[in-house]
Amino acid sequence: MKIGLEVHVALPTKSKLFCACSTTSEEPNSSICPICLGFPGSKPMLNKAALEYSLDVASALKCVSKNRTSFVRKVYFYPDLPKSYQITQLHDAIGVDGHLDLEKKRVRIRRIQLEEDPAKIIREDNYTLVDFNRSGLPLLEIVTEPDIASEDELREFLNELRSILYYLGVDIEKELKVDLNISVSDARVEVKNVTGIRNLVDAARYEIKRQEELVSKKQKIVAETRSYNEKSLKTDASREKESDEEYGFIYEPDLTFYKIEEKEREEPIIASRIAEAISKKYGCSKKTLLELVQFDSKALELLQHSQGKWPIQSIINVIEVLKRYESIKLSNEKFTELLEISKSGHQITDQIIKNVTSGSHVKVTVSDVSSEEIDEEIGKMIAANPKIMLEHEKNPKALNFIVGAVAKKLNASPRLVSERLGLVLKKGFKN
Ligand SMILES: [Zn+2]
Prior knowledge:
Helix content is 36%, strand content 19%. By secondary structure, the protein is an alpha+beta fold. The chain has three domains: 2-175 and 239-259, no CATH class; 271-357, no CATH class; 371-427, no CATH class. Strand 12 and strand 13 form a beta hairpin. The chain is elongated, with a radius of gyration of 29 Å. The mean pLDDT is 88. Bound molecules: zinc ion. The site of zinc ion has 8 residues, from loops.
């Protein structure tokens, strides 16, 4: 089984690919000009930031780039294309022949190219609306070889690609649009325009099963274009032509050849590789680390800053609590304060995080309660909970209840209570 992808990624530039219109307007048809409306005589100008982002992505995906790039017109008639052609790339794409390594597999990247988004078509019952705000937005198309061989590899590839792009400043969570090419036997079926990682995996699962069933019934799989229905979770044959469409490509005479200067690009941040190295070094789960940092540069910064200085499990625990706050801004110093509080045996609670981040420096003090007081309270708790004492021989975790209750009542460190409880039990508790 083979899956190949054409991934379309919106680049986070302030203006469109070939004009100065803003990329963020919401009111329909409010961010338009003669260039992105294709007026006769208007001339496109390439957005340098879009070119830079594209080259960063090509470099991170180990693509080969020529020393120049150029554009072509892909000519076809459709209401979303006011010029009757889309400006895209053909011979001098941004990069070719790259790869992205998964845990056990290399997925080859065939090409990466920069192109403009067409306008948005909104179909109503009796009429069609066109919103040209989208016309000319910068899109990066990343085309893979058909190297993905399972649903799990597909999910891993998409998450890994999303993470690499995230660390390059291109967050594709909302904008990811992909064409899936799936062949269980010889015939290639294309599932067009699927959005979001979850839908992509669902669409692939359905399509693989559909094709496998046809094979097992010895029926023919038709090479065709299908569309994915998010509600029924099925793919359906779409009414598009089955053969490859014939496009006319001509060079874009309004844009020049752009020279690409060779320069050292920074090594991309690959969160999965960092998680792997840390998990090997400290013997903790790579999966847990990756969940923390795959799409969270702040968590990655805190992890890298404190690893080696604190027990890895404390670091993980505190980051996990912090991640419940979606947009927490926290300096390394404040994070260290939290680790110190955690080390003293205290649970990191919402209130503690609030105190530390607001800078009110409400130090969490462990009251100077004496060992005798703790022992006495433990005695009371044990007497009041005979069932727990019966249970704890089979299940040592049953004692956590006593530790928690005593620590809370006396405002004592749970670690200290736990130690005292151990001693009390050793001495033999006499009721
Ligand atoms: Zn414009």
